[in-house]
Write a structure and sequence with these properties.
heterotrimer; A mainly alpha (319); B alpha/beta (402); C mainly alpha (313); A: 319 residues; mainly alpha; two-stranded antiparallel sheet; globular; B: 402 residues; alpha/beta; Rossmann fold; 2 domains; seven-stranded mixed beta sheet; five-stranded parallel beta sheet
């Protein structure tokens, strides 16, 4: 209210806020923080690849796919096996990146045609729990096939070492992830928005009955979307395998984060998944600088804040 | 409503069909509760494999007091509520004579409390919480594996003669990490009053990318970095240490960095020059006992033994000799016989200390180095630290149990 | 369905349960107490999920809150255990109210995901606050009054408390409040149109569900004298939901049956193989594919069909 507070207090307050913001921005530019941001971004890429697959499946098929984390884990283990078959090194790595996601896509194709397609008419919570039963089954299946030992996918010599960014060593592989991420995002965008299949799937997400009435085989569309989504999960697992331990239980850690990202970003929205991954990755890496003990809390807090102001997610969701 | 109740009763009755037939009193049954799925399981399989190898030999010689030793396992999947329920099932339904396990400290503490109430001996075969034989120790629990207090004291012993003055502690933000970091620093400071702790860094358990945490540490320039990680956290650190060639910037110390579980997983990608401690190395000491142990294990399981195998093997020897000394299958006599008992093992004679029921294993200190002989790195410049030198004193234990 | 027959069967069941500790080995006393505790928890979940139609995806938080409240009050604050047992469910209900107020504005899956986020926050705090909650080691050796400390004592205490809780939940769900709640579940817009305060009803249902989950938490403390942070983790929430689904989530006793099946399965399958999650996954898949109403629901369906066939003949 004008006249309520003396003018000099107001201007002093403004000056204070301005100084705080500039100080904050300046501190953001310190090498440690910038390095932290870069690391957060490389983590974002993996989260984005997995979350975008989840978002697709949730947006178009309306299935909350809890088995997505298990497919990510299977992707990582398959990458290990393929890399071993081709003798490690750069060939092994490239073949792994190519074949492991395809393997995961095949698995998902089998379960989609075999079981999921029969249940599209059911309640969401039933599908949610069916995918959970798959997660249980896959968890033990991976143990049966690969055993309980830790596996590592050897990092090819090409990617080893680090490059100095602002004087601090930044691992080369993480840097290359920063390049791969946007490529995948663009490729996905092209598929969803520019291809005929993409347009049909977006329509089916909004009104599947109408799409079916027009004469399009909705079941086939769903199958393709599901397989692509699972392919992305497998790709995320294969990409992350060289820098992380390929081990039983990887599925649990990732699945909750992926879901929260998808909800934050808006269901079925690829850019929403990207935005959500960015927020998640960055709040985690920066939160550690602010309050190391409770760093894990920051992404969850971010989700709560976002959902409080935009209950249906940041960007438009398909349903 | 009545249909529901009828069905319910049928299910309940079906459940009771699972009543196990009594095995008769002709065996000594040991029940293992442990994690056999998920990331921790790689350690636990070695425990039960070492145990199995030992009891096969014992049973071949006629068993103990004319009875064969048998064992059964339950997979708690790293969930303490499940682990506790399984321990209860082993005691109340399977009627085991001895409980053993687990790698999860929370489960171990809960089962230990249960064992105290049930008055049944419980062997802790992997969990590292110092509370197990420390604050919450009692007559019925026996610690076979080392605990965080011991690890800390061994670390201090190992670096006592080194010229490091400035230290940094970093690790995973959970009970084990904090306990081992705090214990190490406490004992280092006690042995070197001039030591300085420049700072601490903690990240969430399982964090894969440690670069953002390690980089500021490099900038702070400590003399030695003490790593307080466990399980897969060890691998994440070791990979990064190699990528950033951390050992050039400062000394790095990690408990179990020289142990096979970690080095085998990394293969040729493991870093060289990382200091560490471990309770078992299959290639050291090169005594006939150790060689025979490794040979037998290799023949049976087609792989070299890791530290878990020693724990399992030692537990079996303790159980056999304990009953032998007691003279009859009586729990109280068994426990009394166990106190102060010495058994043979691949690493020499081991004593089960009477004051706190902790097995006095030797600790080996070494530095990682590539090996022409194996696909993985091994420890070089190995130094043996005797049990009496790095176990907390009985007085210390008495004080914490107050 | 004859009312008299139901009473007779109920009395029969009560008699079986009353004399169970004397007829069977001690293990079954413990196991039954555990099953009833989990069954109570699962029924309290179904209060919100099946009858309220709310996507209660992180119900375990309230169970863990009740258990930890009791544990901390007894061990760290030195309260009288009986007092702790009464206060703990109130703490769980209060937490349920707080979380409910924040989440209730959202609908369906978003409600569930926000609840998971908030619940995970609570878990993270419990997991890291070593000084107060014992951190990831949990709290053990909680001293319970000697009267209910023994195996039999804990069993009877659990039966009585759970029985009362189930009775109260049943009465609430078959009262006007319960009918309104189900009406809101089936068609919230229409309920709103006839003047029902939808939000207030749902919030009340959430608080009640949280309260009874807290009661289940107290029972766990009595039976096992330990608490672990895993009790607040989202995997347990999923497990409880499966119990409700398996048994039949549109019936009152379904979740109890589901709890019995899951606990029995885990206990006995794990003695035979280490792949018991695999077995559970397959079982769940079969139930979802062939018994959409859950085991109990399917049974009801068969009985109803047979009854109507008899009527016609």
């Amino acid at each position: 209210m004008p006249g309520r507070y003396p003018l000099r207090w107001v201007s002093a307050g403004h000056g204070f806020i301005r100084r705080m913001t500039l100080d904050f921005l300046a501190s953001l530019c310190s090498p440690g923080v910038l390095c932290q941001i870069l690391v957060g971004l490389s983590r974002t890429v993996i989260l984005f690849i997995v979350a975008s697959g989840l978002s697709l499946i949730l947006g178009v098929l309306r299935i909350p796919n809890i088995a997505h984390g298990s497919l990510y884990m299977i992707g990582a283990f398959m990458a290990y096996t393929v890399s071993r078959i081709f003798g490690g090194g750069i060939t092994g790595y490239c073949m792994a990146i190519l074949l492991a996601p395809l393997g995961v896509a095949l698995v998902s194709f089998i379960i989609e045609r075999g079981i999921f397609s029969r249940l599209y008419e059911r309640e969401h919570i039933m599908l949610f729990l069916l995918t959970f039963s798959f997660a249980l089954v896959f968890g033990d299946l991976v143990k049966m096939v690969w055993g309980a030992e830790y596996r590592t996918v050897p990092l090819p010599a090409f990617f080893q070492g680090s490059i100095p960014i602002l004087g601090l060593p930044f691992p080369i592989y993480n840097f290359s992830l920063l390049l791969i991420g946007p490529l995948v995002a663009v490729a996905l965008w092209l598929i969803v928005n520019k291809t005929k299949m993409g347009k049909i799937s977006r329509a089916a997400a909004v009104d599947r009955e109408m799409v079916g009435a027009v004469g399009i085989n909705v079941s086939l569309v769903f199958c393709i979307v599901f397989v692509i989504g699972c392919f992305l999960a497998g790709l995320g697992g294969a990409l992350v395998a060289p820098i992380v331990n390929v081990v039983l239980g990887m599925d649990h850690t990732l699945i909750m984060e992926a879901f929260l990202i998808v909800i934050m970003g808006g269901l079925g929205n690829i850019w929403g998944a990207l935005l959500g991954s960015l927020i998640f990755g960055l709040t985690q890496s920066l939160g550690i600088l602010v309050w190391p003990q409770f760093g894990i809390v920051f992404p969850y807090a971010a989700v709560i804040v976002v959902l409080s102001f935009r209950p249906t997610g940041l960007l438009r969701s398909t349903w | 409503m009545k249909k529901a109740l009828t069905i319910g009763m049928c299910i309940v009755l079906l459940g009771f069909l699972g009543v196990s037939l009594s095995y008769g009193a002709n065996t000594i049954k040991v029940g293992f509760v442990d994690t056999y799925s998920g990331p921790a399981s790689v350690y636990c399989f070695d425990v039960v494999d070492g145990f199995k190898m030992a009891i096969q030999a014992i049973n071949a010689k006629g068993g103990v007091l004319g009875k064969k030793i048998e064992y059964t396992t339950r997979d708690e999947k790293f969930n303490p509520a499940t682990g506790l329920a399984m321990a209860k099932e082993l005691v109340m339904r399977e009627e085991v004579d001895i409980l053993a396990g687990t790698i999860n400290s929370a489960t171990t503490l809960a089962v230990s409390d249960f064992a105290k109430k049930e008055k049944i001996p419980f062997f802790c075969t992997f969990a590292k919480s110092e509370k197990i034989t420390g604050e919450m120790g009692h007559r019925y629990v026996f610690g076979v594996a080392e605990n965080t207090r011991m690890v800390g004291k061994a670390t201090a012993f190992a670096v006592a003669k080194k010229p490091y003055k400035k230290f940094w502690v970093a690790g995973e933000d959970y009970e084990y990490g904090h306990a081992v970091g705090e214990a190490s620093w406490r004992y280092i400071k006690a042995m070197k009053p001039e030591a300085q702790l420049l700072g601490q860094t903690w990240w969430k358990v399982g964090e894969a990318d440690l670069a953002p945490y390690i980089t500021p540490i490099v900038q702070a320039k400590p003399d030695m970095l003490y790593m307080a990680t466990g399980g897969s956290g060890n691998l994440n650190f070791l990979k990064l240490a190699k990528a950033m060639n951390l050992m050039k910037e400062m000394a790095c110390f990690l408990h179990t960095s020289i142990e096979l579980s970690n080095l085998q997983a990394l293969g040729k990608d493991a870093p060289e020059g990382v200091m560490g401690t471990a309770n078992y190395l299959f290639y050291y000491p090169e005594t006939p006992e150790n060689k025979a142990f490794v040979e037998e294990f290799r023949k049976m399981y087609n792989r070299p033994p890791k530290v878990g195998a020693l724990y399992g093997y030692a537990a079996a020897q303790l159980i056999a000799k304990g009953y032998q000394k007691a003279g009859k299958i009586d729990r109280e006599k068994f426990i009394t016989a166990m106190e102060g008992l010495t058994v043979d093992s691949p690493v020499g004679k081991l004593e089960m200390r009477a004051c706190d029921h902790q097995l006095m294993l030797p600790m080996f200190y070494g530095v990682t180095k590539a090996s022409p002989q194996y696909d993985f790195h091994i420890a070089s410049d190995v130094m043996t630290i005797a049990g009496k030198d790095y176990l907390p004193t009985c007085d210390e234990i008495k004080k914490v149990r107050k | 369905m004859g009312g008299k027959k139901s009473i007779i069967i109920l009395l029969l069941l009560a008699a079986v349960l009353a004399f169970l500790p004397f007829g069977l080995p001690r293990f079954y006393t413990y196991l039954t107490a555990l099953i009833v505790t989990m069954g109570l928890l699962s029924t309290s979940l179904n209060f919100a999920l099946g009858y309220g139609g709310l996507y209660q995806l992180h119900h375990a938080v309230f169970y863990g809150a009740g258990a930890y409240a009791a544990a901390v009050m007894i061990t760290k604050l030195g309260y009288n255990p009986w007092l702790a047992f009464i206060v703990a469910p109130l703490v769980a209900a209060a937490l349920s109210l707080v979380l409910g107020i924040i989440c209730i504005r959202l609908s369906k899956l978003y409600f569930g995901m926000l609840q998971i986020s908030l619940g995970s926050l609570v878990w993270a705090i419990v997991y890291r606050w070593y000084g107060f909650t014992g951190g990831d080691d949990g709290i053990h050796g909680i001293s319970v009054p000697s009267m209910i400390g023994s195996s039999k004592g804990a069993y009877y205490f659990t039966m009585i408390v759970a029985g009362l809780a189930m009775f109260f939940m049943y009465r609430i769900l078959h009262s006007p409040f319960g009918s309104t709640l189900q009406g809101i579940r089936d068609n919230a817009v229409r309920s709103q149109a006839i003047g029902v305060n939808v939000r207030r009803h749902q919030l009340t249902a959430l608080v009640m569900a949280g309260f009874f989950a807290g009661v289940a938490g107290v029972l766990f403390v009595v039976v096992d004298t330990s608490v672990f942070p895993d009790m607040l983790f989202w995997t347990l929430s999923l497990e409880i939901t499966i119990m409700a689904l398996l048994g039949g989530w549109f019936t009152f006793l379904g979740p109890m049956l589901g709890a019995a099946i899951i606990v029995l399965l885990r206990t006995f399958v794990s003695t035979v193989t280490e792949y018991w999650t695999f077995a559970m996954g397959i079982l769940l898949m079969l139930v979802i594919l062939f018994l959409p109403e859950g085991v109990l629901g399917k049974v009801f369906e068969i009985w109803k069909r047979r009854a109507s066939a008899e009527d016609r003949s």
